[in-house]
Specification:
This protein is an all-alpha fold. It contains 3 helices and no strands. The model has no long low-confidence stretch (mean pLDDT 87).
């Protein structure tokens, strides 16, 4: 029995697709920053950032090729992050309710 986990070699084509998708979402972030969506601006920006974070976690941290236990641990951490962001955004959005 080996001491180390099995390694997976990712092809350069996969890294190119990941790179291009991150460039696309970065351009989308810049485009969204100049587009006035009112109260939805931070929500859209955080949604795009979460998508980019998932791509980085899956491919650059090699979670996509890890065991189910590692995937579950990362998913639990990401779920906790989403809960905290949702609570923060609900506070941010509800602050304007008392001003009308």
């Amino acid at each position: 029995m080996s001491e180390h986990a099995e390694t997976h070699i990712v092809s350069p084509k996969t890294y190119l697709v990941v790179y291009l998708s991150l460039l696309f979402f970065t351009a989308l972030t810049v485009k969204a920053a100049f587009w006035d969506m009112g109260i939805l601006n931070p929500i859209v920006a955080l949604a795009i950032a979460c998508i980019k974070a998932v791509i980085v976690i899956l491919y650059f941290m090699h979670i996509r090729y890890s065991s189910k236990l590692v995937r579950m641990t990362v998913a639990a951490g990401f779920f906790t992050f989403l809960v905290l962001i949702t609570m923060t955004l609900s506070d941010y959005i509800s602050r304007a309710w008392g001003q009308w």
